[in-house]
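The record is given unchanged here:
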Amino acid sequence: MKVIGIGNAIVDVICKVEENFLTQNKLTKSTMKLVDESEFKKLLSKLKIEETVSGGSVANSMVGLSQLGNKVGFIGKVSDDILGNKYEAGLKKENVEFLYSKKKENVPTGTCLILITPDSERTMVTFLGTAGKINKYDIDENIVKQSDILFLEGYLWDEGDPKEAFEKAINNSNKVVMSLSDLFCVERHKPHFLELVKNKLDVTFSNEQEIMSLIDVKTFDDVINFAKNLNKLIVITRGDKGAIAINKGEIVECSAKKNLNIKDLTGAGDLFAGGFLHGLINKKTIKESLETGTEMSAKVIQIIGARLNN
């Protein structure tokens, strides 16, 4: 395998909503909120579903990589239930090897409501289900050892079992890449994420907000100085300002695509990461990798959902 992704195996349930739906349900636009099963069901009962897709941040990146012709696999915990079967079938259809043997769990397969407002922003409400219960026994160290790159998502990191699963994977990997995932994750796990970025990760994906929060700075120049001193590869997306990679003191920039017909920002960061990693594993330059990432990201925001159609 070129890349093995480990992340939350979540079935995305995509719904269109008006702005007031967010206010009425005390949801903060463009963020991700974790809820329990009953709150999830209550919200879902008020909505009309547009489509359901096998989602999860890193899984979306793996699909992008597969579509670009790379041999990739994914480890994520689902239960042997209707959604779990749907999830596995969805990845197989995209030629992503699902490297997890599902069994009947006490907790159902995880789901994420993706609420799209008229301005194309997406707000997520997630019931992690069994996805958040991943543990070290779910990780096959030989599979990790045999892949060039291990790609992890910040969404998955949590104290206890998930942390142990992360550590086992990292300790057996050849090259570790992680996405900070979401401002909510960064604020929740700041000291741990900072330790990972400084000492464990070879490549970090982040957006501007997340990295500024992680290192507690006010200006983007401070981010650049931090990254230059790190001696690692930090890749940051900056919305309409494009993307930037800071690689051991070298700064490479790539501008955003213009005049796009934006429909839904779901998956923009995931597909950007997939495109960038495609460049990295195929020995492209950092500039070319940024360009592929930007191109993939631009394509996905012009459709509904986080999957490009082949």
Summary: The mean pLDDT is 93. The chain has one domain: 3-8+57-107+130-300.
